[in-house]
Design goal:
This protein has 395 residues and is α+β, with helices and mostly antiparallel strands. The protein has 11 helices and 9 strands. A 4-stranded antiparallel sheet has the order 2-3-7-6, covered by helices on one side. It has a 3-stranded mixed sheet with strand order 1-4-5, covered by helices on one side. A two-stranded antiparallel ribbon has the order 8-9. The protein is globular and about 80 Å long.
Length: 395
């Protein structure tokens, strides 16, 4: 039968449906560039970073030099790629670790995107070029200790005081919070929810990193505290009011997630495949046993199916036709498929599956966070339920 890992085989075990044929030349070059970065700069040290609970901030500038930060935005130093290229970059980053994809998603889709879409020209000029270069890091302050799936119940508020705004409140589970130079903070005002561009060195602003996490350990997660943070009128995002602003940002980030988790699933499947071919039991590779082959096939099918969903949604986004419900479809199903793959791969590696010598347990625990953030599985289920029935079951 020949070498099962030979990429020239007609049935390539790493790309059974030949999904690579759906990718254009420029998109392929971007994907390969990111894959090399992950191979050279992330994979050699990611087990230690995960074990130690640190994110290597020094790599932000390298990601900036590759054009990965805000890559799907136009102007102000951003690469201006199409959405599918951004998605493929997220896929390769998450094949390394969800923490790196989260960093890029938050920087580009949650911090840079609202400034680009809703900010003043002054705000764009001040922040976007530095953020695109990785010289300034951003975070997104929406979730609160008692306000997750229901952002409309947020308690953080901003009140007028002369020509200034004064912000008070607490945000929780904020990726990049402890290393950020700027925070896009959403707060309740007398005129509805507004976004504020908050330099993190503003008096009254503080970030407390969360520790003892068992998931997304190679990522900074923080609590943001705003204690009478005084900001000028120029700090307000002038182009949006109401929850439409933050929800549109979340939709951008979810798009990156539905691609990214395909990378995590692929990494787990390929680890299990490689292991099964080399691991000998009862005188032959365990890949030769029926139960192992069934596991590998189920993983392979899930990875390829999720990749097809991601590519299709990427093409819809590039055509300007992607709807929020379709994003929910991708986020809902691709994440749960990735979790299933990771758990099956962990099982396939036996005791070796729980060590950081292999990537599987790291991806498996990371995906538990991805399952919850940017809209829980339940919220996306209800979003799809509303889309197909016309009935709102949130309340």
């Amino acid at each position: 039968m020949g070498d099962p890992l030979d990429p020239t085989r007609s049935d390539n075990p790493r790309d059974m449906l030949a999904i690579s044929t759906l990718i254009g030349q420029e998109e392929r070059e971007i994907q390969q560039t990111v894959r090399r970065f992950v191979t050279d700069r992330v994979l050699p040290d990611i087990a230690d970073w995960f074990d130690q609970g640190v994110f290597p901030r020094e790599l932000a500038k390298e990601m900036g030099s590759l054009g990965l930060l805000g890559m799907h935005l136009d102007g102000y130093g951003c690469a201006g790629t199409n959405a599918t290229s951004y998605g493929l970059a997220c896929l390769e980053l998450e094949a390394g670790d969800s923490g790196f994809r989260s960093f890029v998603s938050v920087q580009g889709s949650l911090a840079m995107f609202p400034i680009r879409a809703f900010g003043s020209e002054e705000q764009k000029q001040e922040w976007l070029p530095r953020m695109a270069a990785g010289e300034a890091i951003g975070c997104f302050g929406l979730t609160e200790p008692d306000s997750g799936s229901d952002p409309g119940s947020m308690r953080t508020n901003a009140r007028r005081d002369g020509g200034d705004w004064v912000l008070n409140g607490t945000k929780m589970w904020i990726t990049n919070g402890g290393i950020a130079d700027v925070a896009v903070v959403w707060a309740r005002t007398d005129g509805g929810v507004r976004g504020f561009v908050v330099p993190t060195d503003t008096p009254g602003f503080s970030a407390n990193n969360l520790h003892k996490k068992m998931s997304l350990r190679a990522s900074v997660t923080s609590e943001l505290v705003l204690d009478n943070v005084r900001l000028p009128e120029s700090a307000v995002l002038p182009g949006v009011s109401g929850l439409r602003g933050p929800l549109s940002c979340l939709n951008e980030a979810r798009f990156g997630i539905l691609f990214g988790v395909v990378g995590a699933a692929r990494a787990c499947y390929e680890a299990a495949l490689d292991y099964s071919i080399t691991r000998q039991q009862f005188g032959k590779p365990i890949a030769g046993f029926q139960l192992v082959q069934r596991k590998l096939v189920e993983m392979m099918v899930s990875v390829n199916r999720s990749a097809l969903v991601a590519m299709h949604l990427g093409r819809l986004k590039d055509a300007g036709q992607l709807t929020p419900a379709q994003v929910s479809f991708g986020k809902l199903d691709n994440v749960r498929q990735a979790i299933d793959v990771a758990r099956e791969a962990r099982n396939s590696l036996g005791a070796n599956g729980i060590t950081l010598e292999y990537p599987v347990i790291r991806h498996m625990t990371n995906l538990e966070s991805v399952y919850t953030y940017e809209g829980t599985n339940e919220i996306h289920t209800l979003a799809l339920g509303r889309a197909i029935t016309g009935e709102d079951a949130y309340r």
